[in-house]
Amino acid sequence: MELTIDADGVALPASLTVPDGHCRGGLVVLHGAAAGHRSFFLYEHLARVLPAMGVAVLRYDRRSREQGDVPLAVQAADARAALLRLCQEVGEVPTGLWGVSQGAWAALVTAATHPADVAFLVLVSACGISPARQMRFGTAEQLRRAGFGTADIAELLDVRLTVEGYLRGDVSRSVAQAAVDRVAGRAWFPLSYLRRTMPDQPGSWVDMDVDPAVFMAGVRCPALLFYGETDDWMPVDESIAAWRQANTPDGTPSPEICRLPGCGHLPGPDGNTTIEGISPRYTETMSRWLDSQLPHRHGRRRPGAG
């Protein structure tokens, strides 16, 4: 079913896949940084697998990134609008969020700020450190795996810290631009994920110092977390520790954590972009966990069902 989500006056195209029979629950899909379209293979996988077990899946296109990253607060507001639209379509059933990478951050913000609207979370590569720290870790790991040495990595981190200083308003634009100019010819620069030209104004990366632990502490619903053991974009152990140390409200269930052997930042081998390459353990664990969280006979039949 094709529909649109009214997100504060912005119409977001969406696709809703519903069960053939009774709907036990619903899931809204939130986006990775480079995967803003609802046709991304991980999102389509959810729409193929979950309706068969009674779970409706709502996928939508993230709003435009023409002006840069969409702030997490805006993504969270859009996610809540999607949850409300999903409830309109499937009735009073438990509804939750699935998010990958940046989408996991957005899901956290949504669950912490609108706890009554989020019954559960399924998060893939939910990073437990700030976006700025995560990008330092991830780009350094790109260089390391590409065979660059410690001096190259140190130079990368130095320039990233200088650029971060400009974005925070602590360093002048000319100093940050000069730092980038000095390394732009390095063989590793394409792996740095740095802009070649600094933005005209600082403050363009509004979420760079967001601490996920603040939002982890506000989560009141059950959560299932997936981490690939070969993830090259975030520190897995530190992220898991952040979840375990989060000062959540009394009575909040501890998240279930699933490590995925042979998987990277996404739930499949590094470089996989196909549904067929998705880890069976990921699919089986998610299906089992959702089955344990959702009522077995609840809600109304799908729209149009006899």
From TrEMBL:
GO molecular function, one term: carboxylic ester hydrolase activity
Pfam families linked: Abhydrolase_1 (PF00561)
InterPro entries: AB_hydrolase_1, AB_hydrolase_Est10, AB_hydrolase_fold
Sequence ranges assigned to domain AB hydrolase-1 in this UniProt record: 27-267
Annotated protein name in UniProt: AB hydrolase-1 domain-containing protein
Source organism per UniProt: Micromonospora echinospora
